[in-house]
């Protein structure tokens, strides 16, 4: 198959979840003998034209000059370029800034969209933008040839809201079982004597709720807060909790080995995400053998089942901090670790994508494709 992957900020990953998936899947598919192309912004720090046998197509991205609007131009440039590539499959990752160009996708390629989460629910967007994103979601759902949902909650939502079937393929992670306690020295913490939260600084990830619980708690363990806090919301949180010495804002950390060790040796890992999908950071926490306290919503329940503690407000967080220890709940840790190995490992996820692509191509050849 000739596969084009659109909708990311390129590989190798230096941004987020879709980029990490694009890197892992494209390498896997290329090693399996497929011809794989990943679209990448022209100013990506990696300057080569191939990466691990994956072809990189550089397209102009003006986001660094004009802000968010640049994403729409970048996606348009990628889609226009795809028209001359004769791809069998176009995998569109997300739809936020690409859905309005869907009519421009090449007609001879099968367009498969991973619908991600409920982008229009993100509170950082004002009401008019949220309405625009709902329209984008509808266009992506109806204009794509096939859809992929990375959580059962999103699959159910697409069927109920847009009457569209989708293929459930989760996100993936790699199990981590080589801890190195010496790494903790760099962060001045001791094993199982600190808590952790890793998230983008956005309201729907509930950092405010978690940190409020930390401040209210009598528990004296520090909490390491990892994520880019040089944002408006980050400034708000730093100002609000400036007097709480237990809260340590570390900024963004991209060293995966360090992150895995911090998750492994933390007492409690907090996951406050609420906006749909199988969140990559949650799977990484499970794979790193963290004890997880997650926001109580059906997306998180769908992944963690009964193998986590759940919170709905800062008082719940306070109670968890004062009463829960990792050493007393190792069965939760083991169950989640095994779930990654059995259900969410990257080889399984990548192979499910390739099998689904083959199925879509077979439907096309038999005339079953509805363009």
Keywords:
alpha/beta; 16% strand; Rossmann fold; 14 strands; 6-stranded parallel beta sheet; 2 domains; 13 helices; globular; 371 residues
Strand order of the largest sheet: 3-4-2-1-5-6-7-8
Shape-level CATH architecture of the largest domain: 3-Layer(aba) Sandwich
In DSSP terms (H or I, runs of 4 or more residues), the helix count works out at: 13
Q: At the third CATH level, what is the topology name of the largest domain?
A: Rossmann fold
Going by CATH, the homologous superfamily of the largest domain would be Glycogen Phosphorylase B
Task: Give the total of beta strands.
Answer: 14
Shape: globular
Structural class, from helix and strand content? Answer: alpha/beta
Poorly predicted segments: none
Mean pLDDT: 93
Beta-strand content bin: 15-25%
- Note the main sheet: 8 strands, mixed
Report Rg: 21 Å
**Termini separation (Å)?**
19 Å
Oligomer: single chain
Structure summary:
40% of the residues lie in helices and 16% in strands. With 371 residues, it is an alpha/beta fold. The model has no long low-confidence stretch (mean pLDDT 93).
Explain what this protein looks like in three dimensions:
The structure is a single chain. By secondary structure, the protein is α/β, with parallel strands linked by helices. It folds into two domains: 191 residues, 3-Layer(aba) Sandwich (Rossmann fold), CATH 3.40.50.2000; 164 residues, Glycogen Phosphorylase B (Rossmann fold, 3-Layer(aba) Sandwich), CATH 3.40.50. The protein has an eight-stranded mixed β-sheet. A six-stranded parallel β-sheet has the order 11-10-9-12-13-14, sandwiched between helices. It is globular, with a radius of gyration of 21 Å. The two termini are 19 Å apart.
């Amino acid at each position: 198959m000739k596969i084009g992957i659109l909708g990311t900020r390129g590989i190798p990953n230096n941004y987020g979840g879709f980029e990490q998936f694009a890197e892992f899947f494209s390498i896997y598919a290329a090693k399996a003998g497929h011809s794989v192309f990943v679209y990448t912004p022209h100013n990506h720090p990696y300057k080569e034209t191939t990466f691990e046998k994956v072809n990189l197509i550089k397209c102009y991205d003006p986001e660094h000059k004009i802000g968010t609007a640049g994403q729409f131009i970048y996606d348009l440039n990628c889609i226009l370029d795809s028209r001359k590539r004769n791809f069998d499959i176009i995998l569109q990752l997300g739809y936020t800034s690409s859905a309005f160009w869907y009519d421009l996708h090449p007609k001879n390629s099968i367009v498969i969209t991973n619908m991600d989460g409920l982008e229009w629910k993100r509170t950082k967007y004002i009401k008019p933008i949220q309405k625009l994103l709902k329209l984008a979601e509808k266009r992506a759902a109806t204009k794509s040839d096939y859809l992929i949902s990375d959580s059962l909650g999103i699959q159910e939502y697409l069927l109920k809201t847009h009457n569209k079937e989708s293929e459930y393929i989760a996100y993936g992670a790699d199990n981590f079982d080589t801890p190195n306690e010496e790494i903790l020295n760099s962060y001045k913490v001791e094993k199982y004597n600190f808590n952790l939260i890793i998230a983008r600084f956005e309201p729907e990830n509930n950092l405010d709720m978690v940190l409020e619980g930390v401040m209210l708690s009598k528990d004296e363990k520090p909490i390491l807060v990892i994520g880019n806090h040089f944002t408006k919301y980050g400034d708000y949180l730093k100002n609000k909790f400036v007097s709480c010495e237990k809260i340590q804002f570390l900024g963004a950390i991209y060293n995966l080995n360090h992150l895995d060790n911090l998750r492994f040796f933390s007492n409690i890992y907090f996951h406050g995400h609420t906006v749909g999908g199988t969140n990559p950071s949650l799977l990484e926490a499970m794979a790193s053998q963290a004890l997880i306290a997650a926001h109580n919503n059906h997306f998180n329940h769908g992944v963690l089942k009964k193998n986590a503690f759940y919170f709905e407000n800062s008082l719940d967080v306070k109670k968890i901090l004062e009463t829960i220890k990792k050493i007393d709940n190792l069965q939760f840790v083991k169950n989640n670790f095994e779930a990654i190995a059995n259900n969410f490992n990257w080889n399984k996820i990548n192979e499910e994508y390739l099998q689904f692509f083959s199925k879509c191509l077979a439907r096309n050849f038999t005339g079953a494709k509805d363009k």
